[in-house]
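Can anyone check this?
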Amino acid sequence: MRTSTSKKSSSFFPFVLVLFFLFFRVPCFAFENPSFVKIKDWHIEKIGSLQIIISAKAVYYNPNKVKAKLSALDLNAFVGETKLGKIEQLNKTIKIKKEQAFEIPLRIDISPETSSWNYIQALLNGLSMNDFILNIRGRFTIKAAGVPIKISLDEKEELNLKMLFN
């Protein structure tokens, strides 16, 4: 009988256990969600008979002591409960520095997805230079230390057409 193989296997088990904890460990840092500051630099880029494109920049502050990277964006724009369109991320690579503010360039593509297009046209004609509330809802995902973190967003911005044309 060979007893030497049992000694090798008994010393192998702690080694495997240590490797398991190194590779499959839970991140040991507490990540605080970036805080919303404001949306700025509103501009109408294009107005057509079937499409309106608006650009803006969302400003956030990263309170964490780790860098991060924006990896996905899933936001929609609403006036009241009427969906105007999907919000796209203009710059695909957004690096988020630690303990600093960062900007996410956005593009709102308002197109006739439903029967709401007539409502949108009437709203824009009726509002002219009056204020209206634009609601931005959805979530975006950032990666900090390789860990994806989903952040929900439900912000309201008071706008008027005069602001958009400047």
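Reply from J.R.: I decoded it. Helices lie at 4-23, 116-127, 161-165.
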